[in-house]
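Fold these two proteins, one after the other.
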Amino acid sequence: MTAFRVLIVEDEMLIAMDMEDMLAEMGFEVVGPAPCLERGMELARREAFDMAVLDINLAGRTSFPIADILRERGIPFLFATGYGVAGLLEKYVGTTTLQKPVEFLQLKAEIVALRQLGENSTV
């Protein structure tokens, strides 16, 4: 059985490392982390992974183009941001959004919920 793979897109290295540690502790394999929009888009297009965690603000640019790629590919994702839901574009309202700093148990619960939705999806 292959490991459940999670893409991290986060421009703040300490936060990315913390998230990577949390995901590894949960038993997941991390893809990335991608520190910028361009790298995040590249990984979103070509890598194989099961879900993604996206920071909305990447050095003053948004990760919404990455989210668009993930939607096209049918890969679930959540946002982790200091802005909370206030930073979402209208088309992403309703997307799981975690307030940073992200808590371990909160992240784990949301990933489990997204995994279950994916397993029950007919997409």
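Now the second one:
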Amino acid sequence: MSGTSDISEPKTAGGAWLVVAASAIGAVVAAFDVVNVGNGIAFSFGAWLVFASSLLVMCAALILGLHLALSGAARGTLAVLLLLGILGTGVAAYFLTAWILLVAMGVALVGWLIHVVADPSPLD
């Protein structure tokens, strides 16, 4: 009998799924901000931009969370682009005074950090 256990922990990308959830909430908030005429940013370029960028962040996090077949370099590149998307959307949300979206991007940033530091590699 060997000293290792036959029971393995499931591979899950919890950090990436947190980014998916936060960016989905951000996309809903941004969509509301686009059409809410009482907020001062309705139908503006910036409102549309943060809506689109929230959706792109969600798509990139889905790719990482589903462990789709990507090389290590492609996963690293996607993780860096995801970080830039989160930060860019957060900065735009700050300038648009879309505070709920800014908080959502803060949560997404925490999820990104968890993904980079603690999530298992799909090859583990």
